[in-house]
Every structure is written in structure tokens, then in C-alpha cells.
Design goal:
- The complex is a heterodimer of chains A (646) and B (415).
- Helix content of chain A is 46%, strand content 14%.
- Chain A is built from 13 helices and 20 strands.
- In chain A, strands 3-4-5-6 form a four-stranded antiparallel β-sheet. In chain A, strands 15-16-12-19 form a four-stranded antiparallel β-sheet. Chain A has a four-stranded antiparallel β-sheet with strand order 14-13-17-18.
- In chain A, a hairpin with a 4-residue loop joins strand 15 and strand 16.
- In chain A, helix 2 runs antiparallel to helix 12.
- Chain B has 415 residues and is α+β, with helices and mostly antiparallel strands.
- Chain B has nine helices and eleven strands.
- Classes of the chains: A alpha+beta (646), B alpha+beta (415).
- Chains A and B meet through helix 2, helix 3, helix 11, helix 12 and helix 13 of A and helix 1, helix 2 and strand 3 of B.
Chain lengths: 646, 415
């Protein structure tokens, strides 16, 4: 037997359910533009019917429906798609930043225009050409001087712009890391609230939306994976480590890196272990700071240091109008190293390393002559050392080409007089200083007796930078051992004077710290135009030194692995251009991918106003119907109570 | 896409409009700057090549400049050399006239007077300067006058006259680049231009027993000749004859001395290298090893003189009234000088022609390279403008559709 008032109860349930439906429609409509919001749906179900089978079951035909009730309010969201968005988003973050900063680097180059460092250098060579025509002229010297200064200013400006970009990127890393820490902290806190709410049997839809949004933002900074394997605990991993585990977030910390010019690296706050990100904005910042922009600065340094060394090499041999010779045209300011390149790397007050940039052999060689020697040259490489074999049938040229293609961080080149020069290049590893020859060893006689660089072959005769006064292993006068002289210099180092011509390494970025020799600025007549002959000063009409310097621009001078200065400029433009092109193309692709994914998500989770309004009408009608039903039951009851006339 | 959320249309529209605006902006920048490549990423390969072209252009205009400079120098030198030829021809006329034998001694002396005047003029021409104030025929000593007059008394002359003209310039060549691979000389040492005869140096030292003590270098006309320890005089002569210097060495059959003779008319320029004493030991150079050309050993006999020597010889013959000499050795010397002078003029002309051709080629190359560079970096205006119009058109269409689609919802029809 059913209760008389069952109908009222059914009607009430209908009214409540449709009201919840209408409220949800309102919630959806008002949140239509909320970032990260996913639409919610009221899922209805028929209320438990009467009656449950059992012994006490009344003898009526059953079951009788008991109306409607809200089963749950669900958010419409595809968690798999969400995973894909998180996985792709770090790429967009990565390329966005790369594109932005590479664009800045490209602007620094100012190519291909007539306001670039290249054009300044063209003008500099042109100045020497002019001086070669008027070697007796002070005005032509002033031109060379001014153009040299303009060129250095241009190089310096380029260096400082690149350095500024690097510092900006470093700041971005600092900001990014603190933002990542903030995001993980917020996610962990949300995890706690969500867990509590779910434990109570609720659907914390809006909290879940909020967390998804934070995860998406986080995935823009670093590459993360979200694991939903354990429904009770929400985990985020990055670089193989747990970043968020339920309500615990592990923060990152910044630590200054001594070997990387004091720029900061990211470490785990608890273990101090370095983190290497593979995606996201922060990985882009690291790539930019330690690879792209650093590479550009290294290239510029490399060009500058070689340029300066070559111009100085000829200028020192030449004679000025005032008969002076031996002066460098460019100097590093401030010059720090002592004359033997001894350097205190550990900072404990004693010299422990030797920093040499270039060593030039004592013997003049013929590039096409067969050396007739066999051996192995050992040079430092990007990681570990590089071995270069040579055989009796090789010509000098063959051996040099092999050295230069070996990937060693030392290049070999013949100078104008046929002497063999070994020059340090930039180093790939930030732990090693740029432009320092770290090791030169020859098991045979090529670098020893033939080229006249090393004193002895084999490991004992090797030049190695890791101790002071390493120049003693370079060939001295006549190859005789240099006796330790009684008179020591002020610093306590023995006076060593090898006959090998060498150049100490620059300590700072050469492109930022080169200047024209103050002596020359004071007295432009000291600018050399002629080479003279046999140690006699050049005659006023002799423009041979100026011409030799102007010729440097066309000669294969081996700026690192690159042959000429023209090659260097063309190469650096192509290089940065290709990087920029790659970044902008990858960014466009990534944007499209993300746009598609986001559209897909919007298609599933986004609010459609029409749809919601239709739902609203539906629920409104439902409410009307339920209300009418209650009225009908009410009328029924009225009939029973008032009209039956009992 | 089965279900379109209200935001989607808006998002998509924004995305597309942003893209289109970026393209419009890019195109506008390109048109405004007239360049196809605004930054290297627009076409890395072309940008890289363009830097080469631009540098090459800068170089080409420098070469054109250098060639022009060299041609100016050549022209100046040619002018003075022609003047020299004119003077020499007048001197030759006088010599032929004087050799006639019908003139009295005083006639000859007045001819000598005129030759003396012309000699002064010749020295002045030799010491002439180009418009920039440098001397033309002094080698690298461009501030000095290359020819020094030595005054003295000559029988038959009134007062002091020039008795000798010394060359005090040097033989260095200043070069200038006229292309990436070629250079041209821009100066003309006077001891070649103003020379008349082959020079011969005959030392008085018997060279047969001489052996070079250690590896060393001697310089003849600035050309290095490398000698090895143990070389005897035959080896030395062989090396000298094989070298690029226009000097021939031979052994005097009588005195066994090593004789040096120039193979073109010029002054032989002797120099021992830093650790060499060979030329001194062979009695060619003097012991003090002073600067050439004044370092020829005093006891060596030197034959073959300059143009000035020839003119002085003629003048002296005229002053002394020696008709035979005037028509004989003096006239021959004048002819030799004139011959050498004309030869040098011819070489200079050939060199000028080479410069002229190189200049023409360089000047033709400049527009070519500019054109090639322009192909790489300059904008195709027609295409750019058409593309811009097309973009504008589609942009407008997109905006209009946006305005139409976005507003209506079911809300507009509900009451």
C-alpha cells in the first residue's frame, strides 16, 4: 500500500533536482570565460523505487518509481587529452622563449646591412689599404686609428649586447624557478583540499579545474609528466624525479656556478643535486644562456682574439714613421697575466697554471714538404683528449688539415713566414677556460725537431697547462735545456726565455676588453706601415706592413675551424639565421598543435551558451512540470480531504 | 569538431587575426625598408651570401680606388719620363751636331754650356715630386730627393758645375692591391729609369779558394740568395745566376775574381745578409757594409753608368772640345740612355694598359655584384604589393565574418 503523500515527495524531489540543474546552468553560464573552467553537468537518476524485494514487501505490483534525484555533478573533461596538452605545452614554452631571444641576438648582428661589425671591419682593412698607398702620411694613420677604434667599439657593443641578453636570460631563470616553486606549492595545497573533499564523497570540480590549470601553467615552464595511477595521490614528475607528491612539493633552489662565470644553476633544495631540464621555458633559458648566446660570444671572442693576434703579429714586425717597432696595435685592457702566462687558478696565492693562447715554432716549414716522420700528436678535445696520427708520406699541409678537423680545441696554422702556430680555440665545456692551450704532446718529432715547438717528444716532453712555468717545455734557444738562473724575478718565478714565440691567453672576454695601444693613440706616427729589411727601419715610402695587414682579410687565418674573416662573418650570420628560422618555424608548428589541442579541449569542456540556454529552458520546463504535479497531487488531496464529505 | 563551445569561435578568430596581422606587419616592414631579408632568419643562406657580396663590393671599390691611384702615379711618372726623353733628344741633337767636326772649340764649349743646363734640368726632373709631395723616382725614400748633385770644377767650364750625380734613393717597390690576387707597383726607382748601361763590378780578389763558412744569405737587388756552408765560388755563381735577380755572375778568366754584371740596365744593389760576409770576402762589397749603393768595394772596378754619367761625359767632352769623344763614346752612351728610357716608358705603358683593363673589369664587376646582392636581399616590389593587397583583402573578409558570426546566441531570441 503506497502512502497518500508519495506524490508530494516525488514532486518535491523534481523541484529540488531541477533547481540544482538550473543552478549548474547558471554556474556554467557565468563561468563561460573563466580560464581553465570545464562545463559541469548534473547527472540525474531515478530515485530508489518501491519496493525492495523482501519478506516485508507489500503485495502490490511493483516497482513504483519514487521520482528523480541528482546522482552527481560531473565536470566534462578528457583527462587523456589533458595529458597530451601538458606534454606538448613545454615545447611551446621552449620555442616561444628561444624565438624571442634569438630574435634579439639577430638584431645585435644587424646583418645584412651596412651598419654591422663586418662593415666596420671592412672599413678597417680599407684603412690599411689607404695607408699602404700613403705610408708617409699621418692622415692615413689617423684613418687607421679611428677605424680601428670604431671597429673595437662595434665589437664591444656587440659583446655587451650579447652579454646583456645573457644576463636577461639569467634573470628569467631566477624568476622562472621561483614561479615554478610557487606553482608546485599551490598544486600541493590544492591536492590536500581535493583529497579532503573526495574523502567526503564530493566532486571538487572547481578545485580540479584549478589544479589542471596550474599543471598546464607549470608545463609551460618545465617538462613534466602527470601520473594519475594512484587515484588517491596526484603526482608530478620532472627529469625523472618526483616534483609533487600529493600534498608535498619539492622546491628548487638557485646556486651560483663558479665554472660558468657565476651564472646560477638550478639544484634540488633538499639534495643540492643539479637539475637538467629538457623542455619548457626554463630549458630554453638554459640553452640560450649556456649554448646559443654563449656560443655567439665565444665566436665573437674567437674572431677578436685571432684578429688582434694576427694584426699585432704583423704590426710588431713593422716600423712606424718615427722608426719605432715591436709595438702592439691592440692590447687587452686590463692585461692580467704575467709574461710567461702563469696564472693562479685556485686563488691560493701561488701560480698553478699556465695560460697560453698561441705558440709558434722556431723553424720555417714548407707546407707541401713531406715530413718523413711518424708519430701521434695529442691535443685537448671537448671531452678528453684527441689524438692525431701522422705518417712519413704526409705533407705539413696534410697534418695541419688533420689537426684542424680532429675536433681538438687547438688549431694549427702556418704564419706568413712558414712557422707553425698552434692556437687555442674556444672550449665546449664551461669548466675549461676559452683560448687556453691545455695540452700539446707529440710522440714523434713533428712538433719537436721539425716544427720546433716542443723541447722533447713523448709524455715527458709534453706541454701541459696544469702547472706554472709550463713554457719551459717549449723549445728554447738551440734546443738546449734552460738552466734555472740565479736571478729570479720579483714574483719568485725563474726567468724562462724560450725561443718559441708565444702569446699569453686573454683572461676576460677579448671582445669586451680590447683597446688600441695607448702609445699608438698618443702618437699615431708609431703605426707601422713598412716592414723594413733585416732589422733596418722601414723607409717612409714603404707600405708593405700596411698591405700585409690588409691582406689578412683574404688569407686563411683559421679563426677556430673557420678559414677566413669573410667566412667567419658569413658563417655567423647563417648560423644565427638558421637558429632563428628553426625557432620561428618550430614555434609556429607548436602553436598550431596547441591551438588544435586546446580547441579539442574546448570542444569537450568549453561552455556553449546556446547549449546552456537550451538546458535552462529544459530545466525550467522540468521545474514547471514538477510544480504542476505537486499542484495536481494537492488537488487530489483537496478532493479527499474537503470534498469526500466523510 | 562536433561540438563548438562559445569561446572557440572567438579563440579561433583571435588566433587567425593575430597571424594575419603579423603577416601584414611583416609585409609592411619589408615594403617600407625595400628589403626581402629583415633579419637573417628570413633566409639564412641568402643573408650569409649577402654579407660576402657586401664585403666584396667594399673591396672592389677599394681596388678601383687603388688602381686609380696607381694609374695617377703612372701618369705622373710617364709625364716626367717623356720630359726626360725630350731633354735627352735635344742633348742627342747637340751631340750629333757637335760630332760634326766643323765647330770650333768655343762653339763646342757653348754647346757644352747648353748640355750643362739640360743636365741640371734632367736632375730636376729626376727629383720631381708628385702632387702629394712625395718624390717619384726615389724608391721607398719618398721624402728624399733621389739624385744628389756633386759640384766641382771641370776644365773649360765657368765656375762649379755638376761633376757627378749620385743615386740616394733605394730600390724598394711599394705595391698596391688591384684585385684579391694581383698587385701593382706604384713607384719607380730612379736607378733603373735613369740608367744607361749595364753595370759591371769586377773585384780584385781571387775567388777560387773561397768557401762559405756558414749558412747565410746575400741580397742582390733585394733578391735573397741563400748560401750553404761549404759552397765554393762556382756554387755561389750558380745560385746567383739561378736567382730572380737581374744579375749575372761569372769568373774573370784572368784575375779569377767573381764578376757581377747586370742583365738589364740598372744599378746593382749589393747587400750581405745579417750573418754573411761573402760579398765582402769576395771583394765585391766594402768592409764597412754601408747602405747600398755606396758599399761597392773601393778596389773593385765598376763600369756602366747612369743617364747623368752619360750626359756629364758628353758635356765634359764638349767642354774640352774633344769632337771624337762627342761623336763616339759619349753619343753611344746617350743612345743607350735614351734606349733604356724608351724601354722603361714602353713597360710603363704596358703596365698602365693592364691597370686600365683591370679598372674596366672592376668597374664592370661592381654593378654585377650589386645586382647579385640585390637578387638576394632586395624585395620584388610587384609581388610584395600584390601580396599585401591580397592580405588586406582577406583580413577585411575575416573581420567582417567575425562581426557577423560572433554576436547571435539563443539569448537574442529569448524573452
Amino acid at each position: 500500500m503506497l502512502s497518500t503523500f508519495t506524490g508530494i515527495e516525488i514532486g518535491k524531489r523534481g523541484l529540488i533536482t531541477t533547481t540544482v540543474g538550473l543552478d549548474t546552468v547558471g554556474h556554467n553560464l557565468t563561468n563561460a570565460s573563466t580560464e581553465g573552467y570545464s562545463r559541469q553537468r548534473v547527472e540525474l537518476q531515478a530515485a530508489e523505487p518501491l519496493t525492495i524485494p523482501g519478506l516485508t514487501r507489500p503485495v502490490t505490483p511493483g516497482q513504483v518509481g519514487e521520482g528523480v534525484e541528482v546522482e552527481r555533478i560531473a565536470r566534462v573533461r578528457d583527462q587523456i587529452l589533458e595529458g597530451r596538452i601538458v606534454a606538448q605545452n613545454n615545447n611551446q614554452g621552449y620555442w616561444e622563449q628561444k624565438d624571442k631571444y634569438l630574435q634579439m641576438v639577430e638584431q645585435v648582428y644587424n646583418e645584412p646591412t651596412d651598419q654591422s661589425v663586418r662593415t666596420l671591419m671592412d672599413k678597417f682593412w680599407d684603412g690599411w689599404q689607404q695607408l699602404s698607398l700613403y705610408p708617409e702620411d699621418i692622415a692615413a694613420r689617423q684613418t687607421v686609428l679611428k677605424r680601428g677604434q670604431t671597429l673595437l667599439d662595434g665589437i664591444k657593443a656587440q659583446y655587451h649586447s650579447l652579454d646583456q641578453i645573457r644576463t636577461m636570460v639569467d634573470t628569467e631563470i631566477q624568476v622562472g624557478v621561483s614561479q615554478v616553486n610557487g606553482l608546485t606549492r599551490q598544486i600541493a595545497k590544492l591536492n590536500e583540499e581535493i583529497a579532503k573533499s573526495q574523502a567526503a564523497g564530493d566532486n571538487p570540480n572547481d578545485l580540479l579545474d584549478k589544479r589542471d590549470l596550474l599543471v598546464e601553467k607549470l608545463s609551460n615552464y618545465i617538462n613534466i609528466t602527470v601520473s594519475g595511477k594512484d587515484p588517491a595521490e596526484f603526482n608530478i614528475h620532472t627529469a625523472g624525479f618526483q616534483l609533487v607528491q600529493g600534498r608535498v612539493a619539492l622546491p628548487f633552489k638557485l646556486a651560483p656556478d663558479q665554472n660558468n662565470e657565476g651564472f646560477s644553476k638550478v639544484v634540488w633544495a633538499d639534495t643540492n643535486e643539479t637539475v637538467h631540464f629538457k623542455g619548457g621555458k626554463i630549458a630554453a633559458f638554459f640553452d640560450l644562456r649556456d649554448k646559443d648566446v654563449r656560443g655567439e660570444i665565444q665566436n665573437l671572442d674567437n674572431m677578436t682574439v685571432n684578429f688582434v693576434d694576427l694584426v699585432n703579429g704583423i704590426h710588431r714586425k713593422g716600423y712606424g714613421l718615427n722608426g719605432q717597432t715591436g709595438a702592439n696595435f691592440f692590447v687587452e685592457r686590463p692585461g692580467v697575466l704575467n709574461a710567461q702566462g702563469n696564472f693562479d687558478q685556485s686563488g691560493n696565492g701561488t701560480f698553478d697554471h699556465t695560460y697560453l693562447f698561441r705558440m709558434t715554432g722556431t723553424n720555417a716549414l714548407d707546407a707541401q714538404a713531406q715530413v718523413g716522420l711518424r708519430g701521434t700528436i695529442t691535443l685537448p678535445g671537448a671531452s678528453g683528449s684527441v689524438s692525431v696520427e701522422y705518417y712519413p708520406t704526409d705533407t705539413v699541409h696534410d697534418i695541419l688539415a688533420r689537426v684542424n678537423n680532429s675536433g681538438a680545441e687547438v688549431v694549427a696554422q702556418m704564419d706568413g713566414d712558414g712557422h707553425l702556430s698552434m692556437k687555442a680555440a674556444t672550449s665546449a665545456n664551461t669548466d675549461n677556460p676559452d683560448f687556453v692551450i691545455r695540452h700539446v704532446e707529440d710522440s714523434g718529432q713533428f712538433l719537436v725537431g721539425y716544427a720546433g715547438i716542443l723541447r722533447a717528444s713523448g709524455a715527458q716532453g709534453a706541454y701541459d697547462w696544469a702547472h706554472a712555468n709550463a713554457v719551459t717545455s717549449l723549445r728554447g734557444d738551440g734546443g738546449a735545456a734552460v738552466p734555472a738562473p740565479a736571478a729570479a724575478s720579483r714574483t719568485g718565478t725563474p726567468q724562462v726565455q724560450p725561443a718559441v714565440d708565444y702569446q699569453v691567453a686573454p683572461l676576460l672576454h677579448p671582445s669586451g676588453w680590447m683597446a688600441i695601444n695607448e702609445k699608438i693613440v698618443q702618437e699615431p706616427a708609431a703605426i707601422a706601415a713598412g716592414l723594413g729589411k733585416d732589422g733596418r727601419a722601414a723607409e717612409p715610402g714603404d707600405g708593405s706592413a700596411a698591405l700585409a695587414i690588409a691582406h689578412l682579410r683574404n688569407q686563411p687565418v683559421m679563426v677556430g675551424q673557420i678559414a677566413t674573416f669573410d667566412d667567419y662573418f658569413a658563417n655567423s650570420v647563417a648560423n644565427i639565421g638558421l637558429k632563428g628560422e628553426q625557432a620561428s618555424q618550430a614555434l609556429n608548428t607548436q602553436k598550431l598543435v596547441m591551438q588544435n589541442l586546446r580547441n579539442l579541449r574546448e570542444s569537450i569542456s568549453g561552455v556553449n551558451v546556446d547549449e546552456e540556454l537550451a538546458q535552462m529552458i529544459k530545466f525550467q520546463h522540468g521545474y514547471d512540470a514538477a510544480a504542476r504535479f505537486v499542484t495536481t497531487v494537492d488537488k487530489m488531496l483537496d478532493t479527499i480531504i474537503n470534498r469526500m464529505g466523510v | 569538431m562536433e561540438r563548438i563551445s562559445t569561446n572557440m569561435m572567438n579563440d579561433d578568430m583571435q588566433y587567425q587575426l593575430r597571424n594575419r596581422e603579423a603577416m601584414l606587419n611583416d609585409m609592411q616592414n619589408k615594403i617600407a625598408s625595400q628589403r626581402r631579408i629583415l633579419s637573417p632568419r628570413d633566409d639564412p643562406a641568402a643573408a650569409a651570401n649577402s654579407t660576402r657580396y657586401q664585403s666584396y663590393l667594399a673591396r672592389l671599390s677599394r681596388y678601383a680606388n687603388n688602381i686609380q691611384y696607381a694609374m695617377d702615379k703612372h701618369q705622373t711618372a710617364e709625364g716626367y719620363m717623356r720630359e726626360t726623353v725630350d731633354i735627352m733628344q735635344r742633348i742627342r741633337e747637340l751631340a750629333v751636331q757637335g760630332a760634326n767636326g766643323t765647330y770650333t772649340k768655343s762653339d763646342l764649349q757653348s754647346m757644352g754650356q747648353e748640355v750643362n743646363q739640360l743636365l741640371g734640368e734632367l736632375v730636376k726632373v729626376g727629383n720631381s715630386r708628385s702632387p702629394d709631395g712625395t718624390t717619384i723616382f726615389a724608391g721607398l725614400l719618398t721624402r728624399n730627393e733621389p739624385f744628389r748633385e756633386v759640384m766641382g770644377n771641370v776644365p773649360g767650364a765657368e765656375g762649379q758645375v755638376i761633376t757627378n750625380v749620385q743615386y740616394v734613393g733605394d730600390i724598394g717597390h711599394n705595391k698596391t692591391d688591384i684585385s684579391d690576387v694581383a698587385t701593382a707597383n706604384v713607384n719607380f726607382p730612379g736607378n733603373r729609369v735613369f740608367w744607361a748601361e749595364q753595370q759591371q763590378i769586377i773585384p780584385s780578389v781571387n775567388a777560387t779558394g773561397y768557401v762559405v763558412q756558414h749558412d747565410s744569405t746575400i741580397y742582390l737587388d733585394n733578391v735573397p740568395v741563400d748560401l750553404k756552408a761549404g759552397d765554393n765560388v762556382y756554387a755561389i755563381m750558380q745560385k746567383i745566376n739561378d736567382s730572380a735577380a737581374a744579375v749575372k755572375a761569372s769568373l774573370d778568366p784572368v784575375s779569377n775574381a767573381m764578376v757581377l754584371q747586370s742583365t738589364t740596365p740598372h744599378q746593382i744593389w749589393l747587400e750581405d745578409g745579417p750573418n754573411s760576409s761573402t760579398l765582402k770576402d769576395l771583394g765585391v762589397a766594402n768592409a764597412t757594409n754601408g747602405n747600398p749603393p755606396r758599399n761597392v768595394a773601393t778596389d773593385a772596378r765598376v763600369y756602366g753608368g747612369s743617364l747623368f754619367d752619360m750626359v756629364i761625359r758628353l758635356r765634359d767632352a764638349m767642354y774640352s772640345g774633344n769632337t771624337l769623344d762627342v761623336g763616339g763614346s759619349a753619343l753611344r752612351g746617350i743612345d743607350d740612355g735614351l734606349h733604356n728610357l724608351l724601354g722603361n716608358l714602353g713597360r710603363l705603358g704596358a703596365e698602365s694598359e693592364r691597370l686600365d683593363l683591370t679598372l674596366k673589369r672592376t668597374e664592370a664587376e661592381i654593378p654585377d655584384v650589386t645586382g647579385q646582392n640585390s637578387h638576394l636581399v632586395d624585395l620584388d616590389m610587384t609581388k610584395a604589393i600584390t601580396d599585401l593587397r591580397m592580405l588586406e583583402y582577406t583580413h577585411q573578409a575575416a573581420l567582417q565574418t567575425a562581426a557577423r558570426i560572433l554576436p547571435p546566441t539563443l539569448l537574442d531570441f529569448m524573452r
